[in-house]
Amino acid sequence: MAGVPSVVRRLYLSIYNWVIFFGWAQVLYFATLALLGSGHETVYAAVEQPLLFAQTAALMEILHSVVGFVRSPVSATLPQISARLFVTWGILWSFPETHSHVLVTSLVLSWSITEVIRYSFFGLKEAFGIIPSRLLWLRYSTFMVLYPTGLVSEVGLIYAALPYMKASEKYCLRMPNKWNFSLDYYYASVVLIGLYIPGFPYLFRYMLAQRKKALSKAKTA
Protein backbone atom coordinates (compact mmCIF):
# COMPACT_ATOMS: atom_id res chain seq x y z
CA MET A 1 0.00 0.00 0.00
CA ALA A 2 1.42 3.34 -1.07
CA GLY A 3 2.42 5.63 1.77
CA VAL A 4 2.75 2.91 4.40
CA PRO A 5 6.39 2.24 5.38
CA SER A 6 7.50 -1.35 4.86
CA VAL A 7 8.50 -1.77 8.51
CA VAL A 8 5.04 -0.67 9.72
CA ARG A 9 3.32 -3.00 7.28
CA ARG A 10 5.50 -5.93 8.33
CA LEU A 11 4.98 -5.21 12.02
CA TYR A 12 1.22 -5.05 11.57
CA LEU A 13 1.07 -8.24 9.48
CA SER A 14 3.35 -10.04 11.92
CA ILE A 15 1.11 -9.19 14.89
CA TYR A 16 -2.02 -10.03 12.90
CA ASN A 17 -0.72 -13.42 11.78
CA TRP A 18 0.49 -14.47 15.23
CA VAL A 19 -2.72 -13.40 16.96
CA ILE A 20 -4.82 -15.42 14.51
CA PHE A 21 -2.35 -18.30 14.73
CA PHE A 22 -2.97 -18.57 18.46
CA GLY A 23 -6.71 -18.44 17.83
CA TRP A 24 -6.56 -21.38 15.44
CA ALA A 25 -4.11 -23.23 17.69
CA GLN A 26 -6.75 -23.05 20.44
CA VAL A 27 -9.37 -24.38 18.03
CA LEU A 28 -7.15 -27.34 17.11
CA TYR A 29 -6.21 -28.04 20.73
CA PHE A 30 -9.76 -27.88 22.12
CA ALA A 31 -11.16 -29.88 19.18
CA THR A 32 -8.62 -32.64 19.73
CA LEU A 33 -9.31 -32.78 23.48
CA ALA A 34 -13.08 -32.90 22.94
CA LEU A 35 -12.87 -35.51 20.20
CA LEU A 36 -10.63 -37.83 22.21
CA GLY A 37 -12.40 -37.22 25.50
CA SER A 38 -16.10 -37.05 24.68
CA GLY A 39 -16.59 -37.76 20.97
CA HIS A 40 -17.43 -35.68 17.92
CA GLU A 41 -20.75 -34.47 19.35
CA THR A 42 -18.93 -32.15 21.77
CA VAL A 43 -16.40 -30.63 19.36
CA TYR A 44 -18.37 -27.53 18.39
CA ALA A 45 -19.15 -26.54 21.98
CA ALA A 46 -15.46 -26.86 22.82
CA VAL A 47 -14.24 -24.63 19.99
CA GLU A 48 -17.09 -22.16 19.41
CA GLN A 49 -15.53 -19.01 20.87
CA PRO A 50 -12.01 -19.26 19.38
CA LEU A 51 -13.54 -20.45 16.09
CA LEU A 52 -15.85 -17.45 15.83
CA PHE A 53 -12.97 -15.12 16.66
CA ALA A 54 -10.36 -16.63 14.34
CA GLN A 55 -12.64 -17.06 11.35
CA THR A 56 -14.27 -13.64 11.67
CA ALA A 57 -10.86 -11.98 11.93
CA ALA A 58 -10.15 -13.35 8.46
CA LEU A 59 -12.32 -10.53 7.13
CA MET A 60 -9.21 -8.41 7.43
CA GLU A 61 -7.54 -10.52 4.75
CA ILE A 62 -9.99 -9.23 2.17
CA LEU A 63 -9.00 -5.70 3.15
CA HIS A 64 -5.31 -6.63 3.07
CA SER A 65 -5.76 -7.86 -0.49
CA VAL A 66 -7.78 -4.81 -1.60
CA VAL A 67 -5.28 -2.24 -0.27
CA GLY A 68 -2.22 -4.18 -1.44
CA PHE A 69 -0.81 -5.27 1.91
CA VAL A 70 -0.49 -8.80 0.50
CA ARG A 71 -0.14 -10.22 -3.00
CA SER A 72 -3.15 -12.55 -2.82
CA PRO A 73 -5.75 -11.51 -5.41
CA VAL A 74 -9.19 -10.50 -4.21
CA SER A 75 -10.68 -13.01 -6.68
CA ALA A 76 -9.15 -15.85 -4.65
CA THR A 77 -9.49 -14.36 -1.17
CA LEU A 78 -13.07 -13.09 -1.28
CA PRO A 79 -14.93 -16.30 -2.20
CA GLN A 80 -12.98 -18.46 0.23
CA ILE A 81 -13.40 -16.12 3.21
CA SER A 82 -17.04 -15.43 2.35
CA ALA A 83 -17.91 -19.13 2.17
CA ARG A 84 -16.20 -19.85 5.49
CA LEU A 85 -17.97 -16.96 7.20
CA PHE A 86 -21.29 -18.19 5.87
CA VAL A 87 -20.67 -21.67 7.27
CA THR A 88 -19.36 -20.29 10.58
CA TRP A 89 -22.14 -17.78 11.26
CA GLY A 90 -24.89 -18.63 8.80
CA ILE A 91 -24.90 -22.37 9.49
CA LEU A 92 -23.11 -23.41 12.69
CA TRP A 93 -23.92 -20.40 14.85
CA SER A 94 -27.43 -19.97 13.43
CA PHE A 95 -28.56 -23.61 13.54
CA PRO A 96 -27.49 -25.40 16.76
CA GLU A 97 -29.04 -28.60 15.40
CA THR A 98 -25.90 -29.04 13.29
CA HIS A 99 -23.49 -28.94 16.24
CA SER A 100 -23.43 -32.69 16.86
CA HIS A 101 -22.94 -33.61 13.20
CA VAL A 102 -19.78 -35.60 12.49
CA LEU A 103 -18.88 -33.19 9.67
CA VAL A 104 -18.29 -30.45 12.26
CA THR A 105 -15.24 -32.41 13.39
CA SER A 106 -13.82 -32.84 9.88
CA LEU A 107 -14.53 -29.17 9.16
CA VAL A 108 -12.85 -27.89 12.32
CA LEU A 109 -9.82 -30.15 11.94
CA SER A 110 -9.39 -29.31 8.23
CA TRP A 111 -9.66 -25.58 8.86
CA SER A 112 -7.54 -25.45 12.01
CA ILE A 113 -4.65 -27.59 10.74
CA THR A 114 -4.57 -25.54 7.54
CA GLU A 115 -4.60 -22.23 9.38
CA VAL A 116 -2.08 -23.16 12.06
CA ILE A 117 0.34 -23.95 9.25
CA ARG A 118 -0.59 -20.91 7.15
CA TYR A 119 -0.48 -18.27 9.89
CA SER A 120 2.77 -19.58 11.39
CA PHE A 121 4.24 -19.52 7.87
CA PHE A 122 3.32 -15.87 7.31
CA GLY A 123 4.08 -14.94 10.91
CA LEU A 124 7.67 -16.16 10.58
CA LYS A 125 8.00 -14.61 7.14
CA GLU A 126 6.85 -11.15 8.27
CA ALA A 127 8.56 -11.17 11.68
CA PHE A 128 11.92 -12.72 10.82
CA GLY A 129 12.06 -13.07 7.05
CA ILE A 130 12.72 -16.80 7.38
CA ILE A 131 10.68 -19.85 6.42
CA PRO A 132 11.80 -23.36 7.47
CA SER A 133 11.82 -25.70 4.47
CA ARG A 134 9.47 -28.19 6.14
CA LEU A 135 6.96 -25.45 6.93
CA LEU A 136 7.19 -24.23 3.34
CA TRP A 137 6.39 -27.73 2.10
CA LEU A 138 3.49 -28.10 4.54
CA ARG A 139 2.08 -24.70 3.56
CA TYR A 140 1.96 -25.62 -0.10
CA SER A 141 1.17 -29.34 0.13
CA THR A 142 -1.34 -30.08 2.91
CA PHE A 143 -4.10 -28.23 1.05
CA MET A 144 -4.25 -31.11 -1.43
CA VAL A 145 -5.92 -33.18 1.30
CA LEU A 146 -7.32 -30.59 3.69
CA TYR A 147 -8.97 -28.34 1.11
CA PRO A 148 -11.18 -31.14 -0.31
CA THR A 149 -12.06 -32.45 3.16
CA GLY A 150 -12.89 -28.94 4.32
CA LEU A 151 -14.99 -28.24 1.25
CA VAL A 152 -16.94 -31.50 1.54
CA SER A 153 -17.58 -30.68 5.19
CA GLU A 154 -18.79 -27.17 4.35
CA VAL A 155 -21.20 -28.40 1.68
CA GLY A 156 -22.36 -31.28 3.86
CA LEU A 157 -23.15 -28.99 6.79
CA ILE A 158 -25.05 -26.52 4.61
CA TYR A 159 -27.06 -29.47 3.26
CA ALA A 160 -27.64 -30.81 6.78
CA ALA A 161 -29.00 -27.42 7.87
CA LEU A 162 -31.49 -27.11 4.99
CA PRO A 163 -34.39 -28.85 6.78
CA TYR A 164 -33.99 -26.56 9.81
CA MET A 165 -33.89 -23.50 7.55
CA LYS A 166 -37.10 -24.56 5.86
CA ALA A 167 -38.91 -25.36 9.08
CA SER A 168 -37.86 -22.22 10.97
CA GLU A 169 -37.82 -19.75 8.05
CA LYS A 170 -34.98 -18.01 9.87
CA TYR A 171 -33.50 -15.03 7.99
CA CYS A 172 -36.32 -15.15 5.43
CA LEU A 173 -37.82 -11.89 4.26
CA ARG A 174 -41.36 -12.16 2.95
CA MET A 175 -43.42 -9.80 0.83
CA PRO A 176 -44.98 -7.36 1.34
CA ASN A 177 -42.47 -5.21 3.21
CA LYS A 178 -41.21 -1.65 3.06
CA TRP A 179 -38.18 -2.66 0.98
CA ASN A 180 -40.33 -4.44 -1.60
CA PHE A 181 -37.81 -7.28 -1.54
CA SER A 182 -38.00 -10.94 -0.58
CA LEU A 183 -35.32 -13.43 0.44
CA ASP A 184 -35.61 -17.13 1.09
CA TYR A 185 -32.60 -18.29 3.10
CA TYR A 186 -33.27 -21.91 2.19
CA TYR A 187 -33.08 -21.36 -1.57
CA ALA A 188 -30.17 -18.92 -1.22
CA SER A 189 -28.25 -21.68 0.57
CA VAL A 190 -29.12 -24.16 -2.18
CA VAL A 191 -27.71 -21.71 -4.74
CA LEU A 192 -24.56 -21.34 -2.64
CA ILE A 193 -24.07 -25.11 -2.65
CA GLY A 194 -24.22 -24.94 -6.45
CA LEU A 195 -21.53 -22.23 -6.50
CA TYR A 196 -19.08 -24.62 -4.87
CA ILE A 197 -19.02 -26.63 -8.12
CA PRO A 198 -17.23 -23.98 -10.24
CA GLY A 199 -15.51 -22.47 -7.21
CA PHE A 200 -13.59 -25.57 -6.13
CA PRO A 201 -11.61 -26.17 -9.36
CA TYR A 202 -10.81 -22.45 -9.71
CA LEU A 203 -9.35 -22.15 -6.21
CA PHE A 204 -7.69 -25.56 -6.33
CA ARG A 205 -5.92 -24.71 -9.61
CA TYR A 206 -4.86 -21.38 -8.12
CA MET A 207 -3.31 -23.13 -5.12
CA LEU A 208 -1.58 -25.70 -7.33
CA ALA A 209 -0.04 -22.87 -9.33
CA GLN A 210 1.09 -21.18 -6.11
CA ARG A 211 2.59 -24.47 -4.92
CA LYS A 212 4.57 -24.95 -8.12
CA LYS A 213 5.86 -21.39 -8.01
CA ALA A 214 6.82 -21.46 -4.31
CA LEU A 215 8.52 -24.87 -4.35
CA SER A 216 10.37 -24.11 -7.59
CA LYS A 217 11.67 -20.87 -6.12
CA ALA A 218 12.81 -22.72 -3.01
CA LYS A 219 14.81 -25.22 -5.07
CA THR A 220 16.67 -22.46 -6.92
CA ALA A 221 17.34 -20.42 -3.77
TrEMBL record:
Return one Gene Ontology term, BP aspect: fatty acid elongation
Classification via Pfam families: PTPLA
What family does the Swiss-Prot or TrEMBL record give for this protein? Answer: Belongs to the very long-chain fatty acids dehydratase HACD family.
Signal peptide range equals none
User: What InterPro entries does this protein map onto?
Assistant: Tyr_Pase-like_PTPLA
Its predominant location is: endoplasmic reticulum
- Alphabetized GO MF terms: very-long-chain (3R)-3-hydroxyacyl-CoA dehydratase activity
EC identifiers of the protein: 4.2.1.134
Q: What does this protein do?
A: Catalyzes the third of the four reactions of the long-chain fatty acids elongation cycle. This endoplasmic reticulum-bound enzymatic process, allows the addition of two carbons to the chain of long- and very long-chain fatty acids/VLCFAs per cycle. This enzyme catalyzes the dehydration of the 3-hydroxyacyl-CoA intermediate into trans-2,3-enoyl-CoA, within each cycle of fatty acid elongation. Thereby, it participates to the production of VLCFAs of different chain lengths that are involved in multiple biological processes as precursors of membrane lipids and lipid mediators.
In what pathway does it function?
Lipid metabolism; fatty acid biosynthesis
Which UniProt keywords are present, listed alphabetically?
Answer: Endoplasmic reticulum, Fatty acid biosynthesis, Fatty acid metabolism, Lipid biosynthesis, Lipid metabolism, Lyase, Membrane, Transmembrane, Transmembrane helix
Membrane topology, as annotated, equals: Multi-pass membrane protein
Subcellular localization is given as:
Endoplasmic reticulum membrane; Membrane
Listed under catalytic activity are: a very-long-chain (3R)-3-hydroxyacyl-CoA = a very-long-chain (2E)-enoyl-CoA + H2O
For this record, the Gene Ontology CC terms, alphabetical, are: endoplasmic reticulum membrane
Q: Which spans are transmembrane here?
A: 12-31, 142-165, 185-204
Name the UniProt record assigns to this protein: Very-long-chain (3R)-3-hydroxyacyl-CoA dehydratase
